[in-house]
Amino acid sequence: MAEMTNLAEAVARVQEAEVKALVSEKLQAGVPADDILAECNQGMIELGNRFGREECFLPELMFGGMMMKTIMAELQPHLSAETALGKAGTAVMGSVQHDVHDIGKDIVVMMLSGSGFEVVDLGVDVPPAKFVDAIRDHQPQVVGMSVLLTTCYTSVTETVDAIRTAGLREGVKLIVGGAAASDLLAEKTGCDFYGKTAVDGVQFACGLQRIGR
Ligand code: B12
Predict the structure, then answer these.
(1) Of the residues 58, 63, 148, which should be mutated to test ligand 1's pocket, given the most ligand atoms within 8 Å of the CB?
(2) Are residues 122 and 197 in the same domain?
(3) I want to staple 195 with a disulfide (CB 3.0 to 4.6 A). Which of 45, 187, 201, 207 is the partner?
(4) Does the residue 183 lie in any domain?
C-alpha cells in the first residue's frame, strides 16, 4: 500500500471521519474533484483486495460502499461534465424472479455506485421483462442478476433468453452472482461472468470500462 495517498488509504481502511475531512480539505485547497474521486476509487479497489485477502469482512465492504455514496454526493457538483455523467458507465441490477434475497445484491449496488457507476436497482423478484425494459430504457454496459435459491436457476435462464429474444444480448455483458450461482450456472445460462463476491463483479465491470466496452 506504499504508493497510495492518505485519502486512498483512509478509504481502503473505511475510516469515514478521516475520509470526509481529507475530501473537504482537498476541495478547499482547489484540488480537482475528478482527482479526488480517482484517489477514492483507488481506495475502493484496495478495499476489495483487502476483502479478497480476508483482512476485512462484509460489514466493512457494505460500509465502504455507503461511505462512497456520501462522498460521491459531495463531489458531484464539482465534477467535470464527463465524470458527472457517469464515466464508469451504467449498470442494471436485480434479484431474479421469485428470489427476494437482497442483502448481497445491495452490496453489489453500493459498490458499483461507489466505483462511479450509475446503477439502476430493480429490486427483488424481478421478472425477465423488467430486465428487458430496463436495458431498453437505460442502455447499461452491464446487467447483474443475483440468485440465492437453486429453484431460481430457471429465472436466470428465462431472463437471459428474454434479453436475447428482445435483440439486446449483444449490447450488454451479463453477470450473475449470489449463493446459488456458480461458473457452471453462468456457462449453462449464457452469462458472461460469474462473480463469487461483490468485489469480483465490480472488478469485472470496471475492467469493461478500462477496455472501453
Ligand atoms: C438472510 C436469508 C434470508 C432472508 C433474506 C432477507 C433479505 N432481505 O435478503 C429471508 C428470511 C427473507 C429468507 C427467505 C428464504 N430463504 Co433464505 N437465506 C438467507 C441466508 C441466511 C443469508 C443470505 C445473505 O443475505 N447472505 C449474505 C450476503 C451478503 O451474501 P450473498 O447474498 O451470497 O451475496 C454475496 C455474494 O454472493 C455476492 N453477490 C450476491 N449477488 C450478486 C450478484 C452479482 C451480479 C454479483 C457479481 C455478486 C453477487 O455479493 C455478496 C458479497 O460478496 C441464506 C444462507 C446462505 N448461505 O446464503 C439463506 C438461503 C439463501 N435461504 C434459503 C431458503 C430456502 C429460503 C426460503 C425458501 C425459506 C422458506 N422456506 O421460506 C425463503 C425464500 C424467499 C424467496 N422467495 O426468496 C436457502 C436456499 C437453499 C437453496 N439451495 O436454494 C439458504 C441457502 C439457506 C439454507 N442453507 O437452506 N432468507
Answers:
(1) 148
(2) yes
(3) 201
(4) yes
- 54 shares its domain with 106: no
* CATH code for the domain of 114: 3.40.50.280
DSSP SS3 for 95: strand
Whether 122 and 159 share a structural domain: yes
> Which of 101, 115, 155 most suits a substitution to test ligand 1, by most atoms within 8 Å of the C-beta?
101
Domain that holds residue 98: 90-210
Ligand 1 centroid, distance to 72 Cα (angstroms): 29
- Ligand 1 pocket member 107 (CB < 6 A): yes
Ligand 1 atom with the shortest distance to the CA of 193: 47
pLDDT in tens, 100-159: 998 888 888 878 887 788 999 999 999 999 999 999 999 999 999 999 999 999 999 999
Q: Which residues have CB under 8 Å from 28's CB, separation 6+?
A: none
**Number of domains comprising the chain:** 2
Write the burial class of residue 46 (CB in 10 Å: 0-12 exposed, 13-18 middle, 19+ buried).
Answer: middle
Ordered strands of the 118-121 beta sheet:
118-121, 90-95, 142-146, 173-177, 193-195
In the predicted structure, residue 67 carries a pLDDT above the cut 60 = yes
What is the CA(5)–ligand 1 centre distance, in A?
Answer: 37
* Chain segment 28-47, per-residue pLDDT in tens: 999 998 889 888 878 887 88
Our answer on whether the CB atom of 94 is closer than 6 Å to any ligand 1 atom is no
